[in-house]
Amino acid sequence: MVDVEHPAPDDRPFLIQVSSLSAVAREAFAVSVAQRYRVWLFVGGAGRTQTVTWEGPYIVGHTGIDTQDAPAMIEAARALDARLRAEHGRGVAGVVCYDEARIVDAAALAAALGLPTSPPEAVARCRDKHATRTALAAADVPQPRSRAVADVPQAVAAAEAIGYPVVIKPRNLAASFGVLRVDAPDGIAAAHAHALSIDLPEEKNRYEAGVLVEEYLDGPEISVDAACFDGRVVPLGVAHKELGFAPAFEEVGHLVDGADPLLRDPDLLAVLTGAHAALGFHTGVTHTELRHSRGVWKVVEVNGRLGGGLIPHLDRLATGVDVNLAAADIAAGRTPELTPGPSRVAAIQFLYPDHDMTIAEIRVDTAALPPEVERAGLLAPTPREVKLPPNGQAWESRIAQIVAVADTEQDCRAALEVAAKAFTVIPATEESAP
Ligand SMILES: Nc1ncnc2c1ncn2[C@@H]1O[C@H](COP(=O)(O)OP(=O)(O)OP(=O)(O)O)[C@@H](O)[C@H]1O
Ligand SMILES: [Mg+2]
């Protein structure tokens, strides 16, 4: 007798994913999307390896390629599509990308293949914060006054015209790199130099007027993850952002309440819808940051991609809606499933050392983590030197992240507070410090 195994036919559609970033930041995406799609990863580019590590179990193949070279990706994707059609009877259904420095290239790839996407120009308008401002201004969408400047005298003049305090920031970066609040004219030159000093090798766009001077919006900040499809902009999760390290704008935590009335707030929805229409962004998931200033929601920026900081994961814990999967569904031309489940409150807290130091070791007492903690982990290897913002930047200075989920905001925050105490930073002694 011969046993013949019949593997279940795998008819999940194929998606091309452009770049994957780190497991701590993006494994939740991989887990969600692999349930429904066969993911083929395009990986590599300036300063990046072309090899696959943690992504392995979640993908069906990969191509080592410069993921900022759209023409090369288009050629590779056409060949892949032909191969998949020949071998599996179905080609590439969509393109997904959450890597800010690659979203325009990914949109160009999807457009060239005739797959669902917002126009690459609309995605580029999100990336260039000055282009965002210009588009929103033309459509009267509420936002801070903003000017692009090429040098310090222009920055001083812009700040005078706008009125202090102002925010000075690079035109095209992310992760709050180089963003500073300035309260008086004598701070402008240093902030301008700081904004220009941040040079990421990944960042290809260079502008003559590469710095923005903006009206400072006071008031609380939120980010809204929204699904854009069929001419609709549907808010899926509202994250309340906790800021720290002034005059920098470091995001030290986010909280998402599944029952947040802002999810159905008509004024907020009008601003969101207006902003997306002004930018021409109609297909995909976006992450829009806003501040409530003088009674009005004003747009800080629209990121033409999924949010970072595990916010899509918080959305799912709090609302039951899988925002990561929604992004994949929209990319594949499928109507996303947006029916919420029971509401909960989910939050993430990033931990930092108390001051600049060389960290020898970080100890975690896992037994001391309360049951509300959904995940908690270190963000970087030790030993290492840590500089806090504004001198150091988020990705270097964060030492750990904790996610908790509970029935109320109070319980969720209390759990995070207890959990933070489970982490102990051991500084290097002076003798052993480098
Ligand atoms: N005009 C403004 N008024 C008040 N705060 C601002 C303004 N512009 C930026 N900020 C603050 O700085 C943060 C970072 O700015 P912005 O989002 O423009 O840059 P970013 O580098 O793309 O940020 P990130 O990737 O962290 O979202 C904002 O989330 C907000 O807290
Ligand atoms: Mg931002």
Automatic annotation (TrEMBL):
What Pfam families does the annotation carry? ATP-grasp_4 (PF13535)
Identify the keywords attached in UniProt to this record, alphabetized.
ATP-binding, Ligase, Nucleotide-binding
**Stored PROSITE patterns:** ATP_GRASP
Q: Ubl conjugation: present as a keyword of the record?
A: no
Tell me the InterPro entries matching this sequence.
Answer: ATP-dep_AA_Ligase, ATP-grasp, ATP_grasp_subdomain_1
Domain ATP-grasp per the UniProt entry, residue ranges? 133-332
Task: State the PANTHER family in the record.
Answer: ATP-GRASP ENZYME FSQD, FUMIPYRROLE BIOSYNTHESIS PROTEIN C
Protein name, per record? ATP-grasp domain-containing protein
